[in-house]
Each structure stands twice: as C-alpha cells, then as structure tokens.
User: What shape does this take?
Amino acid sequence: MKVESINLNFQNAQMHNNMHRSDKPSFTSKYNSDDIYKELMHYMPKSVKLMLKVKEWVGEVQNIIINSVGTGLIAPIFIKYNPLSKTDEDTRTYSAWRQPVSAVLAILTQVGATIPFNNSVKNKANQGKLGQDYNMTPFMDDSYLKKLIKKQHPNYTKAQIEERLNIVKKDQREELIKDLRTKNTVMFIEDGKPNKVPMNRARFKETLLATIDDLIKEEKAEKVKSDDTKRQLRIQRSDYYRTHADKANAHLDALEDIFKSGDIEQVKKDLITMLGEMKSRHEDKELIKFTQEIYTIGSKSDDNKTINSMHDKVKRAKGYVHDYGEMTSKEQVIERVNRSIAGRVTDIDLNLKFFDKVKKAIQNDQTVYEIEDMFTKEVKQNKRLQEKSIKFAERVADQLKNQTKACLNGYKQVGGIFVSLVTLFISCPLLNWVYPKFMAAVFPNLSNGKHTKDTTSLIERASNPELKKAEVKS
Assistant: This one.
C-alpha cells in the first residue's frame, strides 16, 4: 500500500492514502446492514419512520433539553397554583419563575459541558487513544472520516465527500476482514503510533466466541419460530400457492427475468421498482413479502454471485407452487407443512451441533481461516447452512463493531454522570446569583413587592414582642 508524505500524523496519513487508492474488486462479498436498512426504509409506514427518526435523535444531550424544558414548563404551574400553599400569590409567582430560569441554566451548563465531552470521547476513540475496548480505528465513525476528508480535500463538494466516504469505509472493511483471515487478529492504530498493534488475544478469543454464541441464539430462536410462528406463516403461504398457482408462477417468472442481467446492483434496483409498483397496485401480500425476501438476500452483498442464491430461492418456490398447486384442500397443505417443519427442526439441530463443534474449535485456538474452512466443508452437506450463507470473518467484524459501540456508550454514560455532577457546582451558585437579578430586571414590581413584604414582615416581628414570643414557641 502506497504511503504519501504529508504533514499529518500516521493515522491521517493512512487515511489519506486509503482515500487516494484506486477502486479495485472487493476482497469478498459483505453483509451491508446499512444498505439493507436504507432500502427497507422505503417501504416502512410514515409512523414507523417518524419513531425511528425520534429514536435516532434522542440522545444524552436531547434528554437534558427535554427534561429541562419539561421542568421549566410544568413545575411553575404546580408552584403557582398550589392549593396547599399558605404563601401569597406574588410569592408563589416569584418562586415559580425560578424553574424556567433554572432550566435555561441547566441546558447552558450541562449541554455546554456534555457536547464537548462526547465529541472528545468520539475523537479519541477514532484515534485509538482510549484503549482497545474503545478503539474505532478499524471502522472509524462517519463524522470523523468526513472531517478528515474535508481537511485533506477542502474543495470537495458534499457529493464528492459522500463518495469518498463510501470508498474509505469499504477499504477499511476489506482490510479488517483480510486481517482476520490472514493474520487471525484485528490490527489497531494506537494513539498515532507508527505501527499497528494486534488485538489482545484474550479479547479476540472472547469476540470469536461471542460471534458463534450469537449464531447459536439465532438458530434456537428459529427453532422456536418453526414450532409456532413459522408453521402458521408456511401454512398461509403454501395455501396461497394452492389457490393462486398461476399468478404465483407468473410472478416467479418475472423475478427470473430480472436476474438475467447478471448485475447485482441492477437486480436490486429492478426489485425496488417492482416492489413499488406492486404496492401501488395493491398486489397480493404474499407476493410482496416473497419479493422483499428476495431483495433482502441481494442486499447482503455486492457480489454478483449472490444472484445465484436469489435464483435458488425462486426455483424452490416454483417447486412449492407445483406441489401445493396440485392439492385440493387446506388439510393436505397443513399435513405437508407439518412434515416439512419437522425436517426443518432436524436441520436446525444439525446446525446447532455444528456450531457447538465450531465453539470447541475456537476454545482450542483454531484460527479464523480454519473456522471458515470448517464452514466451507459443512456447507457441502448442510443445505440449511448453505442457505444462510454465513461468512464467519464478516460476522466477527460486525460483532467487534457492536462490542466497541456498546463499550463507548457505557464510557460516555459514566463520564456524562461525572460531567453532570461537576456542572452542579457551577449551575447552583450561578442560579442563586442570576435569579434575583433576572427578576429585578424583568419583573421589577413583583421582585420589589416580594422584598418589601419580606422586609415589612421582619420589621413587624422585631418591633412586636408578642410576635417574637410566638415565633420562639413555634
């Protein structure tokens, strides 16, 4: 890999080099969950899209703002109109205004401290300065990468930045997968040091085990689904094939026509168009669901060979249409599905046994390359595993990314609590100093009236012995 001589640290130099690398074939196909998410969002209801956007927007800073605004708007109402309070209305009004002022100060101090803290954590994680548990150098954050790209290419347009970002992320992904397969480790940049360092062996092994544990959980969940949910869905689709054989066959033929281009990107685009047209025409739900399943297979990779897996699923569906289309009753369908489900459960049990075997191999220090070789050999005799198209190294990469993200979230939460506690020592004295001045400036009559009443009360107590005695008794 060519390294250019530039006046940046080693990390930026590597990034600069990656961003000038010429395009080349992918080291391997990859499961791109981001692409799947973006494409499937086209078909989500508006209410779901809104909830997902709110979920993405609400973070620690937004929580501070929401809580502060809520406190500033709601608390004054209960203070002002408290029927149990024995104080006069002006005093209650004076006290009520303390909440909005306090909320504004809380936003200014806490958000003002939290945003720089979170940005600092993110930058250090992308630079490898927080230790391996928080090291994001193999899969840097989009916002951090954009800053580097803008710094190195100040004349780039927004579209060019996005294009370069995708190339860099692809290069990083390929390098991570290649390190897993050829070096049996993950290589990190640590605090801008000139040489990358390998991942701690103990943690690397834990990551491999966590990856296979997730696969085991997925299969066990599939086994449960096969016993109830899956059974009902299979009966529903199979009975649809029985009653709509001609229509189903025509749709499957149309899907096969789409595959003829041999270009996975074109196939995905054509499937998106097909889905849009089917929804606008209110086509049968079973056909729409099946088409979405085909699209999901294609979204897992940018390798043209993925079309073969999509085509295989359509061919199997044609076989089902032929078999179920000859049946004369739903009872026949149910009986056939039950036999099929029983076979599926057997296949899942075989997968679980294989995954246990892989787990023992990991515990015995087998390499990622050797583990993937185990998968390759098993696929030849395991149709279910073949359908799942598992690339173990890619699953390990995803597992590591998720683990790192979870560690960083924990780091920021703990750090955020500390930052909030520190800001209390600033916001409380600041509130006591700002509030009287604010009330005197904005509500002089209310502020003066309150102080006048307080002063008059004190004078009366000082000059009236009976009031002083009553006060002492109380």
Q: What stands out?
A: The CA atoms of residues 177 and 397 lie 7 Å apart. DSSP finds 20 helices and two strands in the chain.
